[in-house]
Amino acid sequence: LQLCCNRLNGSIPAELGNLKKLTVLALQNNGFTGAIPASLGKLTSLTRLDLSANYLSGAIPQTLKNLKQLTVLDLRNNSLSGLVPQELKDLQGFRYDNNSKLCGHNLSSLPRCNSSIPSENQKTVGTGTVNISSDPVAVPKIPESPHLSPSCNNCSSSSSSRFKIGIVSAIIAVVFTATVAIVSLVFALYRRRKQKISSGFETSDSRLSTDQFYHYKDDFSRKCSSPLVLLEYSSDWDPLEDGGTGMGCFRFNLDEIEQATNYFSDKNLLGKNGFSSVFKGVLRDGSPVVVKCINKASCKTHDIEFQEGLKTFMQIQHENVVRLRGFCCSKARAECFLVYEHIDSRSLSQNLDSQSGGGLDWPTRVMIAHDVAKGIEYLHEGLAEPIVHQNISAANILLDQEKKPHISDCALHRILADDIVYSILKASAALGYLAPEYATVGRLTIKSDAYAFGKVIFHLLTGTTKNNSNLDNSSSSLLYSSIKSLVESGRVEEFMDPNLNGNYSVLEATNMAKIALACTSELAYERPAMNTVVRQLETGIINLETPDDC
C-alpha cells in the first residue's frame, strides 16, 4: 500500500492493522498527525514501514517489536518522543533522524532516557508518573517532604563518592563514543572503496558517510508531491547552491541512490558510453528505476544553464515519454544522477533487429508509430517552450511489456557540455537520423525531429534498423528515392519486413511510407509538423504536397 506524497492529513487509521497480508506500507511525505497506531504491530507480514516526513507525535508503539519480518522502519522527520523500544535497535533499516524528543539506551545518536520522560506504558498524573502496565490502580507519586528526608550522617562522603563515580562514567562514555565513531568512519570508508562507478572521473574515498549529511529541508519535503529528498554535498561542486530553484521535489539523496543500485553494483549495470553509465535499481518504496550517472566533466559548466536544463526535465509529463523521477548532484563524486522510471523491456531497435522481429505484429507497429508521434508532438507543442529532442532513434524508444513506446533521453542535451552533444550528434548522423540541414546551418529544429521520426517509420516498415538488403542500394541507409519509387509503383511488399509474413494492410503500409517520405524530405520546410503527422496516422488521409504549416 503506497500512498506517499499525496498530501493526506489527519490521523493514520487504526484499521490498517487489519490488513494482515500487507507487506509494504508507505505513507511518507504526507501530513499525517497524531500517534502511530499500535494496531500496526499486527501486520506480521510487513517488511517495509515508511512513515517519514509527516507530523506524527507521541511514542513509538511497543507493538512494532512484534514485526519479525520487518527490514525497513523509517520514522524520520516527525515529532516523535519518548523511549525507543530496545528491540528496534538491531533493525538494520531503522531510521529515526530528526525526532528531537526521542531517547533510548545503547543508541549512539539519541540521548539516554531519564525518569522525567515517560515511556509508552506510562502516563503523567499530576506531578507524578504512574506505570499503567504493571499496576492496575493509578496512584499518584507523592513528592517527598523536606521534613521527611532520610538521615544524612555521612552526606559529604556520599557526595564525594557520587562525584568520583560521575567522573569515571563520563570517561567511559567519552571512550565508548569515540570508539563507535572511529569504527563507523572506518566502515564508511571501506564501503566507499567497494563502490564501482563506471565513469572517467576518479574521486577520493576519504569523506564521511552520506548518512551524516542526510536530512530533509522542511520547506521542500512538506510541500512536494514526490518522495525525494535533499541533495547530498561534501566538496566544491554545487550547481544548485543558490537555492530557491523550485526543484526540491525532484531531489534525491546520494545515500538513497547508492542503496537503490546496490552501491552501483556491476550486476545492476545496464550499459555505458563515453559520458555516462546506466544502472537499474529499486527505491525504498519498492518502485523500480533506472539511474543515469553523468560525470561533471560532461555537464554544462555554467550553473544557470545546468539549472535551466534540470527545470526542463521537470516539466515533461506524458504517457509516451520516459518520466524523470528525480536527480541528485554529488559534489564528492562530481557526478549528476538522473533517476527515471524503469521501462521493463527492450528498445525498439532491439526488438526489430531480433530474428523474430521482436514479436511486433502489424497492429503493434501502427500503434508504436502513432504513440511516438504523439510523444514528439507533446515535446513540440505541449509545453510553454518547445523542446527539440535532437536524438530521436529506434534505440531511444523503449517498449514496455505491452509494447507501448516511451521516448527516452528527452532534453538531455540541455545539461550536457557542448562537446558531448556534438559527439552524440555525430553518432546520430552515422545512423542516418540527423537531418541534412545541420551540416549547413549548424542547428536543429522541430523539423529535425520530424526527419528522425520518418527514419523510425522506415524501421517499422522494413523490420530492421540496419542496412536493408531489399532496397536497391544495400550498402547505405534507407534511401528516400528507393522508398519513393517503390511506393509510387505500388510495390511496398518489396521493402516490408519478412517477419510479418504478409500479415499487414497494404493501404496502411503505403500511407505510413508516404508519411515517412514527407518527414524525411531534404528540405526542412517541406516536412509536416508533428500534429499533422498524428492527424494523418489517425485518419489515413495523406498529403505529400508541401504542408500548409510551414
Automatic annotation (TrEMBL):
A molecular function (GO) term: protein serine/threonine kinase activity
Protein name: Protein kinase domain-containing protein
Keyword Manganese carried by entry: no
Organism, as annotated: Taxus chinensis
Transmembrane domains' residue ranges: 165-190
Locations listed in the record: Membrane
InterPro entries membership: Kinase-like_dom_sf, Leu-rich_rpt, Leu-rich_rpt_typical-subtyp, LRR_dom_sf, LRR_Rcpt-Like_S/T_Kinase, Prot_kinase_dom, Ser-Thr/Tyr_kinase_cat_dom
Protein family membership: Belongs to the RLP family.
Protein kinase domain sequence ranges: 264-541
Keywords: Glycoprotein, Leucine-rich repeat, Membrane, Repeat, Transmembrane, Transmembrane helix
Gene Ontology cellular-component terms listed: membrane
Gene3D superfamilies: Phosphorylase Kinase, domain 1 (3.30.200.20), Ribonuclease Inhibitor (3.80.10.10), Transferase(Phosphotransferase) domain 1 (1.10.510.10)
PROSITE patterns, alphabetized: PROTEIN_KINASE_DOM
PANTHER family per the UniProt record, alphabetical: LEUCINE-RICH REPEAT PROTEIN KINASE FAMILY PROTEIN (PTHR48006:SF28), LEUCINE-RICH REPEAT-CONTAINING PROTEIN DDB_G0281931-RELATED (PTHR48006)
Topology within the bilayer: Single-pass membrane protein
